[in-house]
Amino acid sequence: MTKPPTVRDVARLSGVSTATVSRYFGGKADAIAPDTLESVRNAAEALGYTPSEIGRSLRLARSRVVVMLVPDATNHFTADVAASVEMALKDQGLSMVLANASEDAAQQDRLLTDAQGLRARAIVVQGAIDTPQIREMVARQHNLIFVNRRPADGVDAPYVGIDNYAAGLAVGRYFADRRYDNCVVISGPRQYSGSSERTEGFLDGLGRETPVLHFESPFTMEGGYEVGRALLVDRSRRFAIFCGNDMIAYGVHRAAVETGMRLPDDVLLFGFDDNRLNEWLAPWLSTVKVPAFDFGPAIAKLICEPPKAPDQRTDIILPFQLKLRQSA
Q1: HEC profile for 245-285?
Q2: Edge-to-edge, what's the strand order for the sheet holding 239-243?
């Protein structure tokens, strides 16, 4: 197997010192004569030489790599946010490594350790789980960005996402204005800030005196389906259901169809996220639209234009919109 070209090979072919080649690839080209720059560039291209990102990161104490952790790589909204971040970072000359934490605290912590080993420029955690390790990294490194799920109390790090409480409040007021009864909220896990904020906002918007059935589910179609099957056994009432995300709503819808119930005649259904599948598979679903492709530019700006003071926290709150369709 042929060995890859080295700095010495480039120096030999271009007729300069290895120090000059290192300066060129280390971002110090301003100190090199134009003719010499051209010689080094031509030699590197002829040999197919590219500098080691590992070596570069060791010298600069950071790399051009951004690590992004996601809670569920199969969730379409989560995937769209990740794609948005990757595109925005590419425009800034940065690369992204995507890792699936699978809503598992131990897996998240292992991935955070790996990100440290890569000397990542930034670590973007979509759907973070509060652990001692993530708290320690925030305090020590100042390069973590929380997305969709706010940092836990006492964790001082930037957040990019919508105001989940305000979005839940808007849905609750919508239900109240239409005098929906037999109201149900199927939230994500309560220990996650996004879930609890959406639920609290919904209950406040509906009115705390209004009776509400509250179920908890993973953010999955399977979770929504199981809750829907149990809830819709009662055919005597027309339920108005607010789901913690669209995936849960899809599961509830399947349970309703299997039970012979129709939307909105027998069941009123409201989702959250408005992921791209809705346009093709669920154009009937009323939901909260979260602008997935606005996340990338916002996150890239935080990475490339960080606050001058490490303790200066910057949150970016993106807009949301109620998308009203046939289901509610």
Answers
A1: CHHHHHHHHHHHHHCCCCCCCCEEEECCECCCHHHHHCCCC
A2: 212-216, 183-187, 239-243, 267-270
What pLDDT digit, counting tens, does each position of 156-186 carry? 999 999 999 999 999 999 999 999 999 999 9
| Prediction pTM value | 0.80
The CATH number of 7-51 is 1.10.260.40
Cβ neighbours, 10 Å, residue 154: 9
Q: Which CATH architecture has domain 61-162+293-319?
A: 3-Layer(aba) Sandwich (3.40)
Distance CA 199, CA 217 (A): 13
Other C-beta atoms within 10 Å of 292: how many? 21
Supply angle C-alpha 215, 217, 218, rounded to 5.
165
